[in-house]
Write a structure and sequence with these properties.
CATH topology of the largest domain: TIM Barrel
Largest sheet: 8 strands, parallel
Number of strands: 17
Shape: globular
Helix content: 25-40%
Distance between the termini: 46 Å
Strand order of the largest sheet: 5-6-7-8-9-10-11-12
Radius of gyration: 25 Å
Oligomer: single chain
Bound molecules: zinc ion
């Protein structure tokens, strides 16, 4: 099995391990490139695309010099994809009803009114500089006359895509790559937040295990690596992961290893694929007011932030229940200000896990925005060096009054307008549909829902994104937990996450799916990147990177989302199709899950686990304690 970073665009038929062999010819190439074919259209598209590049030319070259010449020739290729259907929000900022400029619109024939009822613009053509990986032009022709395969100019390849969908490569703004793929060894017995915490604390000591002495990779690195390969297969170009384990204040070996693996992966992905990886270091919110802990934590996180590349490591918090007992609103504002002061000092951005509760009285987001905007006397204060404030989850905001939601919107807009910081809301429907309003919830993370009493969830656990977005606030969606104690399913497929968001938030008719595709593309890019120059990703536009996903099985959102799985992708990176990229097989992880984690003693005792706990030892309190008493023990 080839590792993702071993992969190179320069296919070489001399490598017999790939199934071709010298002079392997056409049949051999089929063995190599179509290991999991399931649709004829993908086969046709892949065949047409294979005439691009060095595939045929290189195998006849007999010496290095000749190969070099052919490589150069290859690299001058221009590729035109004809007859693709592109979501409106990938072509322009549909929120503002914005088309291209008039002149450009006339030239390229693309405008909002050209979209169909699903928000797709049909008959699009995209010309790519395959040598530099940049989109040269985007225009629209009739969907019937496009796609004629002809050599238009020297080295130009024209490929008919038969009206299938084309999305920009996606950005997943919220994931947990350190604890992923652990569910098979540590199942959350109730699916609730307290048991997720209990499982995580019991399982965390195993993250540093080494199961295979040949590679000496730690347990979490193997799972992390597997997760990244899946994300690459599906078409990720940006991933923000929370760096779980760095908040274990008693295990510096784990902390340092997480930073080391993260930095290595980030560099590899950027160099080999042009894929961006970001990490967030979280503390339990009240700990930001304890200098003995926060000083070193922020310093270490800052030392791992690569300011040259920008936005590589962020600061964050697990906020718990705010406004009732555990942390009141005044305390919360103080903690947030301390967090912002550290971030401002080190010029880092922020992403917080906030209001991930089922408590209608919990509205930390209000305290957070107030603390960001004003001091206690109401004077405007600016944390100038913080350019991005991401608010992840914000589930319980949906349980608040309209007046509270309006106030949150007002504050977020004020920050956008009056400061240099952009506020973004990141919703995580897959995880929160599972966690919120669930049997087994305890006081510590919301309203008690006894696990012994039948209880079907009454609400969806998603922030009011329609209201936020229509007010002009940036919203996007993240996959969040994948196959761990928090969410037993999912697989880092941004398009599957998009589908879940459509269903949970009922977005398909307001106005259509194409409008909201930005939740995993342009809007996620806005949340993840704020410093200039921002990478040109997330849109299908002239001058942007030619990194996108062809979906050979789907010509509409109905086709895309109706079949149980839409695994088939042809992902272009740097202007070239990555046709030999395959999904890793779960059996690769068998060793990591062979032994079960015994979490039972923690789950059924008379103790309650605190949200944001930093280690096993400091995590428990007597279940019957008053929340006020618990706060003092943190
Ligand atoms: Zn999360």
């Amino acid at each position: 099995m080839r590792d993702y970073y071993d992969y190179d665009y320069d296919y070489d038929y001399d490598d017999t391990t790939k199934g071709g062999g010298k002079g392997g010819g056409k049949e051999a190439s089929k063995v190599l490139f179509f290991p999991s074919l399931s649709s004829k259209r993908r086969e046709r598209l892949a065949s047409r695309l294979m005439t691009l590049g060095s595939l045929v030319l290189k195998k006849n070259a007999t010496n290095a010099e000749e190969k070099e010449d052919l490589w150069e020739e290859t690299r001058t290729n221009v590729l035109s994809l004809r007859r693709v259907r592109v979501p409106t929000s990938a072509l322009f900022d549909a929120a503002n009803n914005e088309s291209f400029g008039e002149e450009e619109e006339e030239k390229n024939n693309i405008c909002l009114s050209a979209a169909n009822e699903g928000g797709l613009v049909s008959g699009c053509a995209i010309k790519i500089d395959a040598r530099n990986g940049v989109i040269l032009d985007v225009w629209r022709e009739s969907e019937d006359d496009g796609g004629k395969e002809k050599e238009e100019e020297k080295n130009e390849l024209v490929v008919d895509c038969e009206n299938c969908l084309l999305f920009p490569c996606f950005l997943d703004a919220h994931t947990h790559l350190i604890k992923t793929h652990t569910v098979e060894r540590c199942r959350n017995p109730t699916g609730s937040i307290p048991d997720a915490l209990g499982c995580e604390l019991a399982d965390q000591p195993r993250w540093m295990d080494v199961q295979d002495e040949r590679t000496m990779k730690t347990d979490f690195e193997r799972r992390f690596d597997f997760a990244v390969r899946s994300a690459l297969y599906y078409g990720a170009i940006g991933i923000r992961t929370h760096l779980d384990g760095t908040n274990n204040l008693e295990n510096k070996i784990l902390r340092d290893k997480v930073f080391e693996v993260f930095a290595r992966k980030r560099n590899e992905l950027l160099e080999t694929r042009g894929v961006y990886l970001q990490g967030v270091c979280n503390l339990f919110l009240p700990l930001w007011s304890e200098p003995g802990i926060a000083d070193e934590f922020a310093k270490v996180a800052a030392a791992n932030n690569d300011n040259e590349g920008g936005d590589s490591v962020l600061l964050g918090a697990y906020c718990g229940v705010v406004g009732r007992g555990e942390t009141n609103n005044d305390q919360a504002r103080k903690h947030f200000r301390n967090l912002f002061s550290y971030a401002n000092k080190y010029a880092m951005n922020i992403d917080v896990h906030i209001d991930e509760t089922n408590d209608p009285n919990c509205c930390a987001v209000l305290s957070c925005l107030e603390a960001f905007l004003n001091d206690d006397d109401g004077n405007l204060r600016t944390f100038k060096n913080i350019r991005s404030l991401s608010l992840s989850h914000v589930c319980s905001l949906s349980l608040q009054s309209k007046a509270t939601i309006d106030r949150v919107i007002e504050l977020a807009k004020k920050i956008d307008k009056k400061t240099s910081t952009r506020v973004s809301f990141i919703v995580n429907p897959l995880t929160n549909l599972g966690l919120q309003d669930r049997r087994g919830t305890t006081d510590g993370v919301g309203v008690l829902i006894d696990k012994n009493i039948p209880h079907t969830p009454r609400w969806r656990g998603i922030a009011p994104i329609q209201e936020l977005e229509s007010a002009g606030i940036n919203v996007c969606t993240g996959t969040d937990n994948v196959r761990d104690y928090w969410n037993p399913y999912a697989d880092y497929d941004g398009i599957a996450t998009l589908k879940a968001t459509f269903e949970v938030a009922q977005l398909n008719t307001v106005p259509n799916e194409g409008y909201w595709t930005k939740l995993i593309a342009a809007n996620s890019a806005k949340a993840m990147f704020t410093k200039l120059p921002t990478p040109k990703i997330g849109l299908i536009r002239k001058g942007y990177r030619a990194d996108f996903i062809l979906l050979p099985q789907a010509r509409s959102f109905y086709e895309l989302f109706s079949r149980p799985s839409q695994h088939e992708r042809i992902v272009f990176r740097k202007g070239r199709p990555t046709l030999d990229c395959v999904l890793p097989d779960f059996s690769e992880l068998d060793e990591t899950v062979a032994v079960r984690t015994d979490a039972a003693p923690f789950l059924d005792g008379d103790v309650e686990i605190k949200r944001g706990a930093t280690s096993l030892a400091s995590s428990f309190s007597k279940r019957k304690n008053r929340p006020e008493e618990e706060a003092a023990e943190v």
